[in-house]
Amino acid sequence: MAFARVAWLIMRKDLTVEARSRDILYTTAFFAASCVLVFAFAFVRDGRALDDAAAGILWIAIAFAGTLGLGRGFERERSNETLRALLLAPAPRPAIYVGKLLSIVALLAAIECVLVPLVSLMFQAPLLRHPVLMLALLASGTVGFAAVGTLFAAMLTGARTRDVLLPVLLYPITIPVIIAGVRGTAALLQVDADLDMARAWIGMLVFFDTVFITLALWTFEPLMTD
Amino acid sequence: MPSGSDFKFVRVADVSRHFGRRRALAHVNAEFHVGEVVGLLGPNGAGKSTLLGLLAMLLTPSLGEIRYGQTTPATAGPDLRRRLGLLAHDLYLYPELTAAENLEFFARLYDVPDASACVARALDRSGLTERAHEAVLGYSRGMRQRLALERTLLHGPRLVLLDEPFTGLDDASVRSLVSRLRELADAGAIVILATHDLDVVSELLDRAILISAGRVVADDRRPADLRGWYRHAVAGGPH
């Protein structure tokens, strides 16, 4: 009970802070939209996009925007040293991790609300033809990416080179998540959507999420202690 | 009898702390009891803040042990942190949130009973009730300091750790803080503060500990002339 309460409190606090400043939301949304626009000029010719380009660009934009959001989110905690205040509290430390994870997932979900229609429009990709499966892909992929990202971003708050180290550490570990997201989305975007293949990739993403979250919950306390 | 993770004394036993090759504290021994106001004095970089960080369990000793009554951080778990309050040099406040929201967040994080009433009392004590719903971003350093002090004391900690608590405070706030710290100690708290404001704390301290180059070089009860004692101790005089 205390675990859920603390996670909820931290998520609510993060979202309130973001609702006041909106700097992470605007920065990441603008960055993700710029990515999509640039790729659209490169990969769309005569109104036709390259095969699977939309799937790749959607997930690249999510990954880039997520990295930016993670870095800025923890920079906020670092600049005010408030992460220390959280660690001082008599709360289970894994609950702090879950609270931060939920707030990053909520932020990425908001970005995806902009990204999905934008990619659909720019690449003429029917991303919402199978909305439930697409939603499941986005949710499981976002959670997997954010699960690893939150752990690394928290771990690197004290490092001087955190801005460089975060992508260097994060991308190699999350490549399976991004590949699964791309392949699952591509399966849905085929002329005859391969729903079984999409479900298989969703299953793979849920497996990754379970592994990453379990490892993060297990390692967060020792990594954040001194 | 203290209950659960509560304690009546804190014992620092032969504690050293290194940051890489740099030694911040070396073989520090000290004991702190309820009702005491103890001053950690010393030049900049002496190790005062490191000792506060160790007592707050934000750092772990490289060598030695800190005991909180009969318990150690390893055996007590998170519940021991409920008994600690730290006002650090960084104030641990969210500038985008209002004073009321900051206090409410920490009150709920510490699971303080009747958090709303507790927050209202804290705002009243800090003199910030009228500006309780303004973002902390617009506060002066002194106002933030008063708010951070309330955040520190919100959950009624047994061990109160304060790093330069008088920074940015006006005369009235300083006097109010001095009497508040005395009241806390009289009510059964252990108050440990690191400060350079010797004139302000000369009447407040029950004990003064001088730290220099990571070592305790003097530990005396109520030095009559604190400034003279400090100068003498820093110069390496006998104690």
Structure description:
The complex is a heterodimer of chains A (226) and B (239). By secondary structure, chain A is mainly alpha-helical. Chain A has one domain. Chain A has helices at residues 2-21, 23-43, 53-79, 82-88, 93-123, 131-155, 162-189, 195-224, and strands at 44-45, 48-49. In chain A, α3 runs parallel beside α6 (131-155), α3 (53-79) runs antiparallel to α7 (162-189) and α6 packs antiparallel against α7 (162-189). Chain A is globular. Chain B is an alpha/beta fold. Chain B has a domain at 9-90 and 159-234: P-loop containing nucleotide triphosphate hydrolases (Rossmann fold, 3-Layer(aba) Sandwich). In chain B, 32% of the residues lie in helices and 26% in strands. In chain B, the strands form two sheets. Chain B has a six-stranded mixed β-sheet, sandwiched between helices. In chain B, strands 2-1-4 form a three-stranded antiparallel β-sheet, covered by helices on one side. In chain B, α3 (99-109) packs across α4 and α4 (115-126) packs antiparallel against α5. The two termini of chain B are 35 Å apart. Chain A binds chain B through residues 2, 5-6, 9, 13, 16-17, 20-21, 80-82, 84-93, 225-226, and chain B through 56-60, 78-82, 84, 86, 88, 90-97, 101, 105-106, 108-111, 135, 151.
How many H/I helical runs of chain B? Answer: 8
Helix/strand-derived category of chain A reads mainly alpha
Question: Which residues of chain B sit in consecutive blocks of at least 5 with pLDDT less than 50?
Answer: none
**Quick one: how many beta strands of chain A?**
2
| Helix and strand pattern of chain A | HHEEHHHHHH
What is the CATH topology of the domain at 9-90 and 159-234 in chain B? Rossmann fold
Helical residue percent of chain A?
A: over 70%
CATH superfamily of the domain at 9-90 and 159-234 in chain B: P-loop containing nucleotide triphosphate hydrolases
Q: How many β-strands of chain B, per DSSP?
A: 9
Largest interface: A-B, 24 and 30 residues
Q: What amount of the residues of chain A lies in strands?
A: under 5%
Largest sheet of chain B: 6 strands, mixed
**Spans where pLDDT lies below 50 across 5 or more residues of chain A:** none
Give Rg of chain B in angstroms: 18 Å
The chain-level mean pLDDT of chain B equals 92
Task: Specify the number of helices of chain A.
Answer: 8
Q: Quick one: CATH class of the domain at 9-90 and 159-234 in chain B? A: Alpha Beta
Rough shape of chain B? globular
